Amino acid sequence: MLFVACIIGLCVVSSNGQIQRNAAVDDTVCKEYNTYYKIEGSCDSYVECNAYKATYKTCPDGLYFIRDVVWPTYPCAYPSDAQCDSNDAPQRAVASQDCKHQYGFFASPLATRSDCGKYRMCVEGKAFEMECSMGLAFNPESGRCDWPDLVPSCDADAFLGFKCPPATYDEFGKAYVVNFGIAGSCHYFFSCMENVARLLVCDRGFAFDDSVGRCVDATRVQCQEGN
């Protein structure tokens, strides 16, 4: 099967479905002294122009070309940070035993519906088990850490160990935001709006005051050091 990719009317053909990395190309492609050009039909291949000299390049497997990148910034990023149109296709995946791509963030086999902060980071095909910041769950759809209530594979109440009480509303039908302190912590608290709980933390120098339900100057809150 032949794979054809074109840029500014110039095409490269590969029989293995990938554009040859660091392949020289006609320098007339370069209209600017130093720049990058996206290759139409490809999510991750591009032309780099350096002193009007053109070279075809392909991002490592799992990374996409950044369309609005400015030379000499590295032009490849994770799919969550770089766009790939429906008409474009990525290179053929180079999977390893633990990673479906050489680079990327993926669901971890260690994650469960009640423990959904775990994820897997792959670097050169090697897997590293990671965990989102406290209160966040890994979203396999976006490849990012997200609010638990926005992750379909996560049971947010079980994961957070907290369930909001029934919501209350003002005279205009807008739900009140109600905050709840956490036993043993001076800085973390749960914030509830319309039955959705999110774990938040006070800014540096502030602590959560149960009596007013918000963060205040830490000197006004009595709490044990380190909590």
From TrEMBL:
It comes from the Eukaryota. The keyword Signal applies. Gene3D superfamilies: Chitin binding domain (2.170.140.10). The keyword Phosphoprotein does not apply. Residues 27-86, 96-156, 161-225 form the Chitin-binding type-2 domain. Residues 1-17 form the signal peptide. Keywords: Chitin-binding, Disulfide bond, Glycoprotein, Repeat, Signal. InterPro entries: Chitin-bd_dom, Chitin-bd_dom_sf, Chitin_bind-dev_reg. SMART domains: ChtBD2. This is Chitin-binding type-2 domain-containing protein. It comes from Iphiclides podalirius (scarce swallowtail).
